[in-house]
Amino acid sequence: MLKRHANFFKSLLLLLDLATITIAWFGAYLLRFKVQLVPVTKGIPLLSDYFLLLIPIYVIWIFSFWSFDLYRPRRISSRLSEVWDMVKANTMSVLLLAAFAFFIRDTEFSRLVFTYFWALNITLLCLLRWTYREVLRVLRRRNYNLRYILVIGAENLAKEVINRFKYHPELGMTVVGCLTKQSEKIGQSMEDAEIIGTYDMLPTILAKRTIDQVFLALPADAQSEINKIMEVLSDYPVDIRIVPDVSQYMMLRSEAEMFDGLPILTLQASPLYGWSRVIKRSMDIGLSALTLIIASPLIIAISISIRWTSPGPIFYRQVRMGLDGKSFFMLKFRSMRVDAEQETGAVWTTTNDNRRTAIGKLLRQTSLDELPQCFNVLKGDMSLVGPRPERPELIEQCRTGIPTYVLRQKMKAGMTGWAQVHGWRGQTSLEKRVEHDLHYIEHWTPWLDLKILGMTLVKGFINKNAY
């Protein structure tokens, strides 16, 4: 019954895809020859010529979509991965279609139609898939289209698995029970799921109960049990998923991927690679250059004030730790006496710090002393948004008390950041600052950067903890 339901939804999605592809194909024809975004100079071809190309289009797209596994169940996969697969499948399909059309000598097909078709197809198919998934989520919340799960394990890892399904009813994954190694636990409840047996009872439970998927959530030292369980499961037509016991090692942007058929777990990584790096760097260059141009009169005024009010240089260069622990010289307007650290060494600034110059207090309270860091951003040492850079001496003090402190260096240091816009700067909790910085790295997007920059402007640069 369940397999028939799965085949029904696959067939339904296939028919919806073909209908959408048809709309996109004729939409591309209308855009080119009726709307004429680009004027037509060689005459308008017959619609029937393009109609005949639908058969090879259907064949190519079905082949591509099956090749990219776009009809597999995606209950627990991300929507972004489906969109990316859709883009790749459509791109390959359009290239194959263009190659096929080249050999049809009777008709010359417009290359702009293919371009419009590619764009329309991706847009409409992604909207279709989003709507389709949302409808399924609503149905699953109402107890339709469910899948029945057996969790093998009764430790903390198994509890995590059950909790994930409990808090995401839209996935339609119902836990029918758990298996444990200890028989005395049978009948007990674990996170609202009943422990219904031991590992040895697995064949009987699979034969008597409706189970679609088995989740193995066993501790790392249970390899012998896993081998026995896998031998039993090989005789039953259920989906098998293993949740590796590595959660205690997962730190930053952890993910799983396949490398030539080999599963690879990434436990700690930077979010900036590929186009993400290009987008963030482009934003940094454009916005920092614009800031320097707009603020140039203010920069000149501050420079003159510093020169008039205290002896010494206008700018202060200080070694800070940036991306991957690499040091760089960070620029600031000088706000303290030249001999400020001669006796104290590297320390954080305190309230009513007598080392500040006459104008230094105002510069620090308004954060205007950090304007020259736009040059660091242009050079590439810093970013507009990111964890604030610290001095090497202070980092050594922090890393002993806060083990995750160095993870901040997986992202380029910033002029402002998630911690700063939430008030965690100056003499405030280091733990909270690190927590906010790691949240930013874990959830980084260009939109989050723009949000932080907006919050920085709205809240202003004055902060009671800056002195």
Proportion of strand residues: 5-15%
Which spans have pLDDT < 50 for at least 5 consecutive residues? Answer: none
Gross morphology is flat
Termini separation: 69 Å
Explain what the structure shows:
The protein is 48% helix and 13% strand. The protein is α/β, with parallel strands linked by helices. The chain folds into 3 domains: 2-141, no CATH class; 147-245, Rossmann fold (3-Layer(aba) Sandwich); 275-459, no CATH class. Strand 1 (147-152), helix 6 and strand 2 (173-180) form a beta-alpha-beta unit. Helix 1 (2-35) packs antiparallel against helix 5. The relative contact order is 0.06. The mean pLDDT is 81.
Entry summary:
The protein is an alpha/beta fold. It has helices at 2-35, 47-51, 54-67, 79-102, 111-141, 156-166, 202-208, 223-233, 275-294, 296-309, 360-365, 373-379, 392-401, 418-421, 430-442, 446-459, and strands spanning 147-152, 173-180, 189-190, 193-198, 213-216, 239-242, 255-259, 262-266, 315-321, 327-333, 383-385, 414-416.
